[in-house]
From TrEMBL:
The lineage of its organism: Eukaryota, Metazoa, Ecdysozoa, Nematoda, Chromadorea. Residues 217-538 form the Phlebovirus glycoprotein G2 fusion domain. This is (pine wood nematode) hypothetical protein. The chain crosses the membrane at residues 674-701. InterPro entries: DUF5641, Phlebovirus_G2_fusion. Gene3D superfamilies: 2.60.40.3770, 2.60.98.50. Keywords: Membrane, Transmembrane, Transmembrane helix. Residues 96-195 form the DUF5641 domain.
Length: 728
């Protein structure tokens, strides 16, 4: 994808060059031109947002820019204002500059539109030798394309959707709706081009962006402990204490801490990665309930006439009817199910089916029953307990941990403590939850359900799970509202489909902003990326095993010269009693460069002396102490150069004939092929030149010879008849 953007940079430069040319314009006009050009380029469509007729995404959308255009003055006015010919007013000058600027911008837009569309079309060509219609990716159905049209308004891109592919050269494009109708136009495929970002490439880039390539520490703290009660002999034993606060954001940052000894050696390395901050709900159960649906709530009527045989309608029995009153006509199931019994007075007399004209009685009962055995609970979370979940690696040992604020976590000599944790108030913490006790399925009760009469706390609330299981909970009287007439009660009951809430979009797991609600073993957990401060305390005791090595110098040898360019060097055998170590030297008048002493190896180093005869005692100083050795030797003295020696040296530098001949032989051996090639080409050119020079002479000589010898003429013999058959 980088090639097209490199080409866009070249198009921008060529567009500015085409619109400005060699013209010199003021600085403010140049800045305006550049800003307008940037707005034009950033208004190009990248990809569409959805399947509908929604605006496409442009670079301006990501830059947060909303380009605006001022109306351009036109010359189509039938009655223009009269202006003097030489109007030098500021208004006229400003209007002229504005027109010139708009003219340049129109040129920029026209050139950019053509060049950019050509770039998009060239992207899909199969090879450079094919004609313009040979495309590698043919337009697909429902693909959003750009229609290439001439004289389009500035920053206006006409888009359409491929609705039909009629042939391999023409397609039908569906444009946007206007007045409820969608217009369709036919265009050749060389007049349309795809958008910059297509569906496949966009998905591929998005997937590549999700790939996590590297893992690194967000904060690296080098903790240099202060030594306390250190004992130094062959063993250095020191005790360190260090406590540091780290601001950390879970799931995005990794904390690295490293404890170094005074010799800059890393003794303890700690890597801490916090995965999340989880808030555990401390539930407060509000009620238990069962599923009751509209078909479960039933109304049973019993119509009785006053003083009728076998009727309960006598005296004031109707007025004294209570919720638990059992009417034998209802049957055992309605009477035993939770509900309410009511009675209304009705008309009497013959037209109401009664022998007496006194008022009759209308008995009815609404009751609840459930065919779903599951028990549901309604609860809220008045408080939450935060916990920090993470893992740390201590010297290549990885262990998971769970931190609670103000409670330290100990592992080996490391102590972790959450110093501070702040949580922004969120409405989701005040939610009411519904949970199925059998499957632990949990959902948030929507606010619309909580505020309606059909909420779980009003339909069939129970004080305990056993009461809900036995269907022995009291029923609210206002669960059903009845308005009976003379023959039948008309009831409207509030019911709620509890399993539907658990299957809705409010079921857990659920994300609200940067909070994630989930259910684990019946508990509600809220996962957040809340910044916190983590305190790390390290109590480390370092034991460093040291060896105080001594070194011995033997078999010294001095070579070189005094006060010369090459200088002097000393070779020696250096041995230690334990491992390699660094040795430095001290002498009276000789300076010796320090070395790394390794047993069994001969080591050379440079020296500097003020005398040619060296005979002195020196000291080799190592970490284990000093050792003495003798340094003896003689340095050569460099002789000054006199004029006679310079002449002799010049004669010595005079090359002999033999050496020159050898040099020529070397040159011939190296460039023999080149010499032969050049010589062959030269001989060929000379031969061609001679042929061109002598061929005309040969042709002229031949012509002369032909002119000196005339062509013989044939003379016919006279014809004579011979008689007798004899020849003449």
């Amino acid at each position: 994808m980088g090639g097209i953007y490199e080409r866009l940079v070249a198009l921008c430069k060529s567009t500015l060059h085409k619109s400005l040319g060699r013209r010199l314009i003021p600085d403010d006009e140049l800045r305006t031109q550049l800003l307008e050009c940037a707005s034009i380029i950033n208004s190009r469509p990248l990809c569409y947002q959805a399947e509908g007729d929604t605006p496409v995404l442009t670079p301006n959308d990501f830059l947060g820019v909303m380009p605006k255009q001022l109306p351009y003055p036109t010359d189509n006015d039938d009655d223009p204002d009269w202006l003097p010919e030489n109007d030098d007013s500021a208004r006229a000058a400003l209007l002229k500059r504005w027109k010139d600027s708009n003219s340049r911008l129109e040129k920029t837009w026209n050139y950019w539109n053509k060049a950019y569309v050509t770039t998009l079309q060239d992207r899909v060509k199969n090879t450079h030798d094919n004609p313009h219609l040979s495309v590698k990716s043919f337009p697909q159905l429902n693909e959003i394309v750009i229609l290439q049209e001439d004289k389009t308004p500035r920053q206006s891109w006409r888009l359409g959707r491929v609705s039909e592919i009629s042939s391999n050269r023409h397609v039908k494009i569906a444009l946007g709706e206007r007045n409820g109708q969608r217009k369709t136009v036919a265009r050749p495929i060389n007049r349309i081009c795809p958008l910059e970002l297509r569906a496949f490439s966009t998905c591929l880039i998005s997937l590549l962006c999700l790939v996590r390539l590297t893992l690194s520490c967000s904060d690296l703290a080098v903790l240099t402990g202060q030594a306390q009660d250190c004992q130094i002999s062959d063993v250095i034993k020191c005790r360190y204490q260090q406590s540091t606060l780290f601001p950390v954001t879970p799931s995005t940052q990794t904390v690295c801490a490293e404890l170094r000894a005074p010799n800059n050696e890393a003794s303890t390395r700690l890597v801490i990665k916090l995965k999340s901050v989880k808030y555990k709900c401390h539930r407060s159960t509000l009620a238990y309930t069962r599923q009751v649906a509209a078909h479960v709530v039933k109304s049973v009527k019993s119509v009785r006439c006053d003083q009728a045989l076998g009727s309960e309608c006598f005296s004031n029995f109707c007025e004294s009817t209570k919720s638990e009153t059992k009417i034998p006509a209802f049957g055992d199931q309605p009477n035993s199910a939770p509900g309410h019994t009511n009675c209304f007075r009705r008309c009497g007399c013959a037209w109401c089916g009664c022998g007496l004209c006194s008022e009759g009685c209308l008995f009815y009962r609404y009751f609840l029953e459930s065919d779903v055995p599951d028990i549901f609970t309604v609860f809220s979370c008045p408080s939450f307990t935060p916990t920090v979940v993470g893992e740390f690696t201590l010297n290549n040992i990885t262990k998971k941990f769970v931190l609670t604020p103000a409670l330290p976590y100990h592992f080996s000599n490391i102590t972790l403590t959450v110093a501070s944790l702040s949580t922004a108030p969120a409405p989701i913490f005040n939610s009411m939850f519904l949970q199925n006790l059998r499957s632990n399925s949990t959902a948030i009760i929507p606010e619309t359900v909580r505020s309606s009469p059909s909420n779980p706390l009003s339909v069939y609330p129970c004080a305990s799970a056993s009461a809900a299981r036995d269907m022995s909970c009291p029923v609210r009287k206002d669960i059903c509202r009845c308005s009976p007439d003379s023959y039948d009660p008309h009831c409207s009951c509030h019911v709620l489909d509890l399993p539907e809430i658990l299957r809705s979009d409010h079921a857990l797991p659920l994300r609200r902003g940067d909070l994630m609600l989930s259910e684990h073993d019946g508990e509600v957990l809220v996962t957040a990326s809340t910044p916190l401060q983590l305190q790390i305390q390290i109590n480390e005791t370092l034991v460093l095993q040291t060896h105080l090595s001594t070194c011995t110098i033997e078999d010294t040898n001095i070579i070189g010269c005094l006060d010369c360019t090459e200088g002097a060097t000393m070779s020696m055998k250096c041995s230690t009693n334990f491992g390699p170590t660094t040795a430095r030297f001290e002498c009276d008048s000789t300076i010796i460069k320090e070395i790394e002493c390794i047993t069994g190896e001969r080591i050379s180093t440079s020296i500097y002396s003020t005398t040619s005869d060296i005979n002195e005692d020196c000291k080799a100083i190592c970490v284990g102490g000093e050792t003495q050795f003798s340094l003896k030797g003689k340095l050569a003295i460099a002789q000054p150069i006199i004029p006679s020696d310079m002449e002799r040296a010049a004669k010595d530098l005079t090359p002999e004939v033999v050496s020159v001949w050898e040099a020529l032989k070397d040159i011939w051996g190296s460039y023999k092929t080149i010499f032969i090639t050049v010589l062959s080409v030269g001989l060929f050119l000379i031969a061609v030149y001679l042929l061109q020079l002598f061929i005309p002479l040969f042709m002229l000589a031949g012509e002369c010879l032909r002119n000196k010898q005339p062509r013989p003429q044939l003379t016919p013999l006279p014809f004579r008849r011979v008689h007798g058959g004899q020849r003449p």
